[in-house]
Write a structure and sequence with these properties.
By secondary structure, the protein is α/β, with parallel strands linked by helices. Helices cover about 40% and strands about 20% of the residues.
């Protein structure tokens, strides 16, 4: 890797800590560990990790609430790694700002794939200049090159995953993109059945970008997909 990737592992099970830390170390990752929520928040601020692996079942704090606080404070990629397998838990974590959700037990290969996918969104690789660099939608300006969204000159903060989803919709503006298309483009191969991811993140975009009383920016075609409204 061109630069060292720092992973913040928030986990109180020593066996899982040893497993993840040792496997990430041999692949060149720098792993810092917290077994409690308050220390995790301090490390998030002081160590500036590239990605967080967050267990929901911590002894001193509710994991969902910790996820929410982390998202409020940082755009870091958050991957929830939990023994909770329920669909409601997954949706709740995504609503709190998690970028991904994986259940225990898991393979190291799966974990690495999820970390790589998350980093791909937060560290976009420079490519050739896109044919279209700016999209204007109503009073929104979407700068695809700078990964920036503004309304009348005021920036609207989006997480890397939120912007990645908006970018796909804006690049193919007016075109219906299926759930599977968006999952593959934004999250990567292997996510095509995770339709909750798209639904949750479309809701997050709408909450940040749409204004009450104005026409919808992101249009849903039930059981088919989404498209960015055309002019």
């Amino acid at each position: 890797m061109a630069e060292t990737t720092r992973v913040l592992l928030v986990e109180d099970d020593p066996n899982i800590v040893d497993l993840i830390r040792s496997n990430l170390a041999v692949r060149g990752f720098d792993t810092i560990v917290s077994t409690d929520g308050m220390r995790a928040l301090a490390l998030l601020e002081n160590s500036r990790p590239d990605v967080v692996l967050l267990d929901l079942m911590l002894p001193d704090v509710d994991g969902m609430e910790l996820c929410r606080i982390m998202r409020e404070r940082s755009s870091v990629g958050i991957i929830v790694v939990s023994a909770r397998r329920g669909e409601r838990d997954k949706v709740s974590a995504l609503n709190m700002g998690a970028d991904d959700y994986m259940t225990k037990p898991f393979s190291i290969e799966e974990l690495l794939a999820r970390i790589t996918a998350t980093l791909r969104r937060s560290r976009p690789v420079a490519t050739t200049e896109p044919a279209m660099t700016t999209v204007t939608a109503g009073d929104l300006e979407i700068d695809l090159a700078a990964h920036r969204v503004t309304r009348r000159g005021t920036e609207i903060h989006l997480t890397p995953t939120e912007f990645a989803l908006l970018r796909e919709l804006a690049t193919d503006r007016g075109k219906l993109l299926s759930h599977a298309d968006l999952l593959r483009r934004v999250w990567g191969a292997g996510y095509q059945t995770e339709t909750e991811y798209v639904r949750v993140y479309v809701r997050r975009l709408r909450a940040k970008l749409e204004v009450d009383g104005s026409p919808p920016l992101i249009i849903n075609q039930p059981r088919a997909g989404y498209r960015l409204a055309a002019d």
